[in-house]
Amino acid sequence: MRALGALPDDHYLEEKNLRNKVRAILVSHGHLDHVGAVQYIAPRYNAGVYGTPYTMEVLKTLMEDRTIPNKINYVPVNGYTTISGKEKYKVEFINMTHSTIQCAIVAVHTPDGVVLYANDYKLDNTPVLGEKPNYQRLKELSKQGVKALIVNCLYAHADYKTPSEKIARGLLEDVLLTTENHKSALIVTTFASHIARLKSIVDFGEKL
After folding, report:
1. What are the start-end ranges of the E strands in 23-168?
2. Contact present, 81 and 108 (Cβ < 8 Å)
3. Residue 190 to residue 32: CA distance in whole angstroms
4. Could you give the C-alpha distances from 85 to 22, 41, 48, 188, in angstroms and in order?
5. Residue-range domain boundaries for the chain
């Protein structure tokens, strides 16, 4: 699966004899393209898997489908946690909006500064579920000193702003409630992990 690119190629850590230095696996959110490999990678390390409570529950569900014993140590985090080892690192999960719930930007506090890992984020000030991004905390970290910002986000190369989920909710309401649909069936599709969109579908479906 590594050869196919379906799993991260972590053989570099083995080649450099660094596997025993891995202290933790930090997961930003529960989408399958971000957590799907954890069940294969995590058992190779003596390290806990850290993430928000919902993200950890997604991982536990994935492990139920596996036939091998579940030896992964899941650590749900709200805000801060300290990862102990030869050196201690403080890790912070900062609230961020995305198309599933309890997403976070991960901040690793080191003696040299903060390393920010921003993975699949959406700057949505009017989310349907949850709180808007924690801009205040991000501003505070920028003043403390950010050593590195690692960004990996869909459509990051495109020069436009992604509309708020509130806009999508309004469009969905318009389609479902203002279209003549007497004695007709409506089939609505979406990603199963798009919790906010599912909420809107259910909310308006109850009014039909």
Report:
1. 24-26, 48-51, 74-76, 80-83, 89-96, 103-110, 113-119, 146-152
2. no
3. 15
4. 10, 20, 12, 49
5. 11-152, 165-205
- Tens-place pLDDT, residues 160-203: 888 999 999 999 999 888 877 677 778 888 888 889 999 999 99
Q: Exposed, middle or buried by CB within 10 Å (0-12, 13-18, 19+), for 54?
A: middle
Q: Among candidates 187, 190, 192, which has minimal Cα distance to 205? A: 187
**Cα gap 81→47, rounded to integer Å:** 14
pLDDT (tens digit per residue) in 13-25: 989 999 888 999 9
Residues 100 and 86: beta-carbon distance below 8 Å: no
Tokens of 78: 């709200």
* Cβ contact 166:125 at 8 Å: no
- The secondary structure of 62-101, three-state, reads HHHCCCCCCCCCEEECCCEEEECCCCCEEEEEEEEECCCC
**Strand ordering across the sheet containing 146-152:** 80-83, 89-96, 103-110, 113-119, 146-152
pTM: 0.87
Residues pairing with 83 in the sheet: 89
Residues 41-93: tens digit of each pLDDT: 888 898 999 999 999 999 988 888 776 666 789 999 988 888 876 677 899 99
- Topology, domain 11-152: Metallo-beta-lactamase; Chain A (3.60.15)
Checking DSSP bridges between strand 24-26 and strand 48-51, what pairing results, if any?
parallel
